[in-house]
Predict the 3D structure of the following.
Amino acid sequence: MVDGYPLLTACLPRLRRYARALVSDTSLADDLVQDTLERAWHKLELWRPSDDMRAWLFGIMHNLHVNQVRKTRLPTVTLDDEALTAPTRATQSDNLEVRDLHTALQLLPREQRAVLLLVALEQMTYQEIALSLEIPIGTVMSRLARGREKLRLLMEGATANPAPSSSTATLKLVK
C-alpha cells in the first residue's frame, strides 16, 4: 500500500523523539525506530486509512520496546572517543535540571513512563494512547496520574516510595 508511505515518513521525527526518551541511548533509539519502520513497512497492508498512522506506529514501537526489555541482555558500554575523555561539570542549572528529569523518568515504572512520554512529548490524546498501548482509557488516566505524582516527588527530592500519610497530614519534601 503506497498510500501510507507519506504518512509513515511524516511520523519519523516523533518516532525518533519518543524512542530516544524510552531507551535513553541514541543508537538504541535509532535501532528501535528502524525496527519499528521495518515492521510497519512489512505490515502496512494491516493499517487502515481510517486509523491514525501515528497511533499505529507508536503501538508497534511500544510492543517492540516491551519485547526488547523482556529479553535478558548483558549490559554493555560502547567505548568511543567521548567515553574516554574526562567528564566536564555542568555550569548551568538547566543542564542539571534536564539530567535530574532524565534520571527521575528512568526511575518511573515502564508503564507510567510510556504514558507520560506520549502525553508530554507527543501530545497524544488519552484515546490515541489507549489505542497505541492497547489498554483502556481509564488505565491511561490512572498511569498518567500516578506517573506525574511520582515524577513530581522524585523531582522535589522525596524518596521513590514515600511512607503513606493520612489525608490531613502534609508530606514534607526535602529540597
